[in-house]
Each structure stands twice: as structure tokens, then as C-alpha cells.
Amino acid sequence: MNKQRFVVIDVETTGNSPKKGDKIIQIAAVVIENGQITERFSKYINPNKSIPAFIEQLTGISNQMVEHEQPFEAVAEEVFHLLDGAYFVAHNIHFDLGFVKYELHKAGFHLPDCEVLDTVELSRIVFPGFEGYKLTELSEELQLRHDQPHRADSDAEVTGLIFLEILEKLRQLPYPTLKQLRRLSQHFISDLTHLLDMFIYENRHTEIPGYARFSSFSVREPQSIDEHANEDGNFSFEIENWEAGNEKALSELMPGYEKREGQMMMMKEVAEAFANREHALIEAPPGIGKTIGYLIPAALFAKKSKKPVIISTYSTLLQQQILTKDLPIVQDLFPFPVTAAILKGQSHYLCLYKFEQVLHEDDDNYDAVLTKAQLLVWLTETDTGDVAELNLPSGGKLLWDRLAYDDESYKRSRNENVTGFYERAKQIAMRSDLVITNHSLLLTDEGSQKKRLPESGTFIIDEAHHFERAASEHLGKRATYIELHTKLSRIGTLKEQGLLKKMRQLFQRNSLPVDSFFELEEWIQHIQAESDAFFSSVHSFVKRRKPKEDLNRLVFKVNKESQDKSWPILTDGAERLCSMLTHLQQLFEAQSALMEKHLTSMKSRTVFLADEYQRSMKGLQQYCQTLQKLFFESEDDEAVWIEIDAKGAKNAVAIYAQPLEPGELLADQFFARKNSVVLTSATLTVEDSFQFMIERLGLGDFFPRTMRIESPFSYDKRMRVMIPKEMKSIQDTGQAEFIQDTARYIELMAKEKQPKILVLLTSHDMLKKVHQELKHLM
């Protein structure tokens, strides 16, 4: 077989299954040899059956276009010779290969003995950070022309160009990365092994610059951290001087910029709050340039004080917007450097030590293998090691939980060539003027002895209307069935490929007694059965008390009044489950004492396995403590409630407890320890007053500054509020009738030739049902 000949095939069909009578209506191919397209082939095919309307609409291929064309049998020999001795390449290989193979067989030809390459799979591997892997998405990411999507000739052409990009990307990978991909390739859909062998041979003596070696794979060589980032600059001017001197610069940097009084008011208010060491609440509506309004005074204050300003947001989307869109504008305004960094929680960052151990595990789970391949390529590109850069398969998210950074695994990771991603992120944050983080990490850091954020007394809380909720979630507790099930599944049994079986094998290899594993397995099985029964009984308990609510998500508030004669059944179940988990922990502790004596003499992969086993068992212990507190140790100042999926699994249950008023804790543990905290959002007032938010956040004793900036938009002229007079609430009608009413009123508004209507609904399920109802009405 000529390994340099690739035939990229695309077919358009009447449906999804050739065995059910669906036929090819267009077939196209491009031939790639020696890195370029050398031949093109395209034919319309008469399927001898009618093309469904939705296929015609999708592809633009009509019955009239194919009625005088030949059937597939007439081109079968040409297709056969085209494929003979070449790789069969397609985007979603199973679809195109299935149709071509079936039609060739019907025509009396057997598909040539060719290897296959799936550009969906290969794109996921070599472009692990792309947002999507459809042809249209890939062509947009790679800036390739795709003139007629869902036409075989256009799809084959763009698939061929994508495949050339894939080959070039593979060719440029460092030797260690290629070697590890080669080891994983036996599990791929694509027959990639021979291609990887070729690239490995080409790169065997090549030292590609820009990479560092971490054990068995390569990582991108980290850029040096600027040690002089916080040096003195020219800070002699104040905000007022900046307004006059740099308004022109701002208009040049921001196309369409108009001077906004609200933005200048906000800059001055933030600057005064920082200078006077006061807390402040600023309601800043959309359109005033809120982010720039606080970034400029924050940058100035950080430079003058030589201490970073911490900026906290609720959403990761806003963090990226600040760093990539707004901050560059601010940096270009000043005659001195303004540095910034994003710092997230540990679970966002890859631990290289963990990845090295997991990479070499024997694993035939496709999603896990695909994720490992993605990570190998991504590590040659990433500076941050942040999972947000990745587009992982669904099973890959489970693998990431095993690979994320934690303190214990880092202690065992000592590689002089490479600093861990999380440690590096902290180092960069320590040297930055502005540190962007999230509410959850900010609150976690306040309660932790081991600080992650740099020392600072000056904070900006953006999206501050979510700050109370974030505090409640941080201070609260939660126990779900799925969480316990996941923990138990990870440990597994002696018959499954989980941690328990692997640890028993480890004990056997080290001549340690293994009797304890049989008892542990027995108790794990008991706990799984008990948890199924317990959460099912909780589900039934809630559903019986919410029989008339036609909603999927049911919420039951737990209080003294709600604890009727059936409640003791639940507490008895919780007590049994906690007792079993406690006994399991006792068995593990006896086993752990024996294991600790031998850890120092074990190999690193064995130590990693033992660490993971211990973490999993400790996770069960923490779960037991949480369940104990939820059912038997709840406080009077806590809200406890149960949520179930009424239409989901019978054990789809989550139990929560959160403080009713987190303000007092926020006052003592956060605001009292800070010099100045500026909270800003588009919605901080109730009836034009900040008092409600001040009380909820515990700011009453601090007498914070307040500013409410008027919106630059005339809502009374640009917006209409339309209230249906006869529409009942969902509690009165049930979901089905409510959806019908909602769709009917939307239809009425649309018929009045309203401008574009934005419809917001409270769940994805309701969104789909309203959409379906509207399709019938309109």
C-alpha cells in the first residue's frame, strides 16, 4: 500500500441506514498524494427512490437533479479503483464507509483492503481546544472556504484541506509526544499507527525547539515570568487628569467610543473608595463601560500602592472578557506596564505528575484514550494547563477529575525542568498588578490557612448580585446520590477494573495480606444497595408531597412542620447509611496503616495508585460527615431542602443546607479584614435603594459608599412591557397549560409585527416545549 495516497470521501444520502433502504444521491472524493490534492471526483447518483423533503432542504439536491443520473452500480468500478491501495478518509468515517461498502457490495465489488482515517477523531486529537468538530466549525476555525455545506463535492474538498492541516500538525509534534500517541493508537477508530511510525522516523534525531521534557512526554517550554512587572512608573497624574489627557487615546482604542459620564463617575467613585479605605456599592447599568470604569482606577491604585487589586467575578466568561478584551485597552492607555493574571481553583489545572501515571495505565475505554491523546497534544501548546482551554469528550471529564492538581500529588511531583501549572499560575499572580479570580475561590481562600491569592486589602467584586449566593453555596453543604455513586464506582469491586481490584493486586505483588479486601468489597456492595434504597425513599417522600406540580424539578423544604410521620423513615435510612460508611472507614484505616509502612519502597506509579485509593476512601468519609450534618446536625439559622428530578431516575436526589443569612459571616470573615471592597453590578438596588443588599451582605456596620448610575438608554422609548391579563401562573395551571398559554401570547405579539422578541424561560425542557408549540401555531 502506498502510504502517501489518501482518498477523502463524502456522500450525501436519502437517510442514515443503507440496510433500511437509504441510498447515496451524491458521492465525491479528493485524492491527496505527497501533501497536495492531485485529483477530484464527483457524481450525482440516481437512488431510484424519492428524496425526502428534509434531505432536499438540507443538501439542496432535488429529485429533478438526479432523475437522469446513473445508479451507483454504474460508477462502482471507478470508486473501487479510486480506493484501491489508499487510505479511506472521511469526516465521521462510519457513515460514509458504511454506505460505500454496502453499495460496492451490491454492485459486486468488495471494499479494497484499505486503512481508514476519521477526521472527526483526528481533529479532536490534534485540535483539542476547538469549540466544535463539525465541518463548518472546523473550516471556520482553520479559515478554510466551505461554499456549500452538505454537498458532497464541497464537503469532500474541505475535509481534504482539514486532513492536510491534521497531517501537518502531526508532523510538527515533538518525538516524545508522537511516541506516546503511537502507544495509544491501537484504541483509535483511525488506523493511525503507520502514519505515526513515519512521523516518528522523520523526527527521531530532531530536537524541536520550544519544548521541555516531562518524564515520557513533552510540554511547551514555559515563558519566563517577568520579575520586574511591579517596578515603579510615572503615577503622578490622577483620574481627573487622565480624563482630559486620554479621552482621545480611549476613542482611538475603542471604535465607536463616545464619552460616557457614567463611566467617568464610576472611575472617580472607585478611586475615592480605594483612597479612603472604604467599601462601596455601585450599580452600573449596561452600556456605561463598567469594566473599563473600574479597571483604570484599579490599575492606578495597584501601581501606587505596590499591592495587587483582586477582581472577582461569578462567571468564567467575564474573566476571559476582562483579560482578553478590556485589559488590553487599559494597558495601552498608560505609559507604564499593567500586568494581570487569572487564578482559578486547583481543580482547573492539570497535574503533570498525575497525568504521567494515568497515561501509562492500560485503558480500553475510548473516551479515556481519546482524552489522553488530546492532553498529549495540548501540553505542547498550553501555557496555563487550564481545563477551560479544552473540548473534552463526556467521559474525559471523569478522567480530568483524576488528573486535576491537588496538594498531595504535587508533593510527589519533583521535576526540575518544569514547574507545575498551578504553582506557575500562583507565581504569576503574585507578580501581577491585577488578579482576576472567581467568587468561590475568593471565599475559599478567606477560610483557608494556606493562601492561594496574593496578599491584598483592595478588592472589586463584579457581578456582585451573585456574591451572596456564592457565599451561601460556599458556607453550605450538599449531598447527592450521583456523588456517592461516582465515589463508590471509582473504588469498584474485586471483579471490576476499579481501585479495589488494583490495590488487591498491589498487595499481592508486595506479599501483603489481602483478606481485608474481601470484607471491604462486601461492605461497598452493602453501601451501594443501601444508598439506592435510601435515595429512592427520599425521592418518593418528596414526590408524594408535591403531587400536583407538573414540573420536573421538585423542591421540598425541610422544617419541623414538614417532618410528618414518614420523616423518621428517612432519618433511619440516613443513620444506617452513615453507620455503614463509618464501618467502611474503620476497615480502610486498619488497611491503610499496613500500606503506609511500605509506600516509601514502592515505585511512583504504585504510590500514585495508593494515593488515589486513599483519596477516594477519604472522599467517602467526608460524604458521611456531610450527610450526618444534613440530617442530624442542622442549625436553626440554616435552610435545609431536598430537590428531586420528578421525571428522572428514582434516586435522582440532592439534599442541601445553606445559611439563611450569610451576611454576618461575610461581615466578620471578609469585609472586616479588607481595606476597601467595591461591589458592582447592574442590579444592586430594590426600589432605588441599596438597603436590602447592604443588609444581605452584612455591610450595615461599615456604612459603605453607594452610587447608582443612570442608564444611558431610554428604556421608556425603546422597550415595551406587555403583561397578559388572563394568563394564570404555572402553579395554578400546571406546566402543560402554562406552555400552551405562553406560546399563544408569543404568537399574538409576533402577529402585531413587533420587533425581534427575546423569550426567556426557566428551563431547557420548557424552552423545547414552547418551541414545539409555536411551530404548530405559526
Automatic annotation (TrEMBL):
Keyword set, alphabetical order: ATP-binding, Exonuclease, Helicase, Hydrolase, Nuclease, Nucleotide-binding
EC numbers for this chain: 3.1.-.-
Domain Helicase ATP-binding: 249-510
SMART domains assigned: DEXDc, EXOIII
SUPFAM superfamilies referenced in this protein's UniProt entry, alphabetically: P-loop containing nucleoside triphosphate hydrolases, Ribonuclease H-like
GO MF annotation list: 3'-5' exonuclease activity; ATP binding; DNA binding; DNA-directed DNA polymerase activity; helicase activity
Protein name: 3'-5' exonuclease DinG
Purpose of the protein: 3'-5' exonuclease.
